[in-house]
Amino acid sequence: MQQSDEALVAEIKCGSQSAMEVLIRRHYKLVFAVVYRKTGNYHLACDLTQDIFIKVAGGIGRYTGDGKFKNWLVTIAYNHCTDYFRSPRSRHQNQETSVPENLPDERMNVIRLLEKDDERQRVKDALMGLPEYQRDAIVLSYYQDMKIKDIANVMQCSDSTVKSRLHQGLKKLRKLLNGGDEHDTTRNHS
After folding, report:
1. Range of the domain at 64
2. Residue 182: helix, strand or coil by DSSP?
3. Does residue 85 sit in helix, strand or coil?
4. Is there a single domain that holds both residue 83 and residue 12?
5. What is the DSSP secondary structure assignment for residue 61, as one 8-state letter?
6. Are residues 74 and 135 in the same domain?
């Protein structure tokens, strides 16, 4: 049976380096995905993810066990990205480099692969065209499958504000992707 995050944190607080390694391996993809979708840059996401885990290792003593560890970690990642974008360092960073999210299956039709890459890029570009607060709400909801309440905690706003940001962001996203669609695809994560 897999040890809980909270049990690993307790071990880390007692000085266990191996427990920290397990926690990092367990949540690396999650943190990287949040950062990558927030920045749109693969190499920058790698750097910021590393910074975030250094911050987590240094601040693990502040995790009180209130709420899920995953949500605490996503909050740190979210705040670290926000701090990065406010810093002078972000102005010097090239935002153009990215890599495909999935490696192609050799049997896959090359034309279909290119279509998928084009579609993925269109969605990414449209997401990056949204205001940051709407993009963040959509990424946390749809890509990280977080509940409205948890998103509100991460973004430090009310549940109704998150719902509004999701609704407005999805409406703008539809317009950016295909000129508008009458079907509402919002999800209820109450």
Report:
1. 5-91
2. coil
3. helix
4. yes
5. G
6. no
* Residue 143 CA to its chain's centroid (Å): 7
Which pair of structure tokens corresponds to residue 141? Answer: 């909801």
Residue 96 lies inside a defined structural domain of this protein: no
Task: Indicate if the alpha-carbon torsion angle 81, 32, 188, 190 is positive or negative.
Answer: negative
Task: Summarize pLDDT for 84-116 with one digit per residue, the tens.
Answer: 888 877 655 544 334 444 444 444 444 555 556
The whole-model pTM stands at 0.62
**Burial of 70: CB neighbours in 10 Å, binned 0-12, 13-18, 19+:** middle
Nearest to 185 by CA among 152, 138, 151, 149: 138
Q: Is residue 97 part of a domain?
A: no
- State how far the Cα of 128 lies from the Cα of 173, in Å rounded to an integer: 10
The sign one gets for the Cα dihedral 129, 37, 136, 149 is: positive
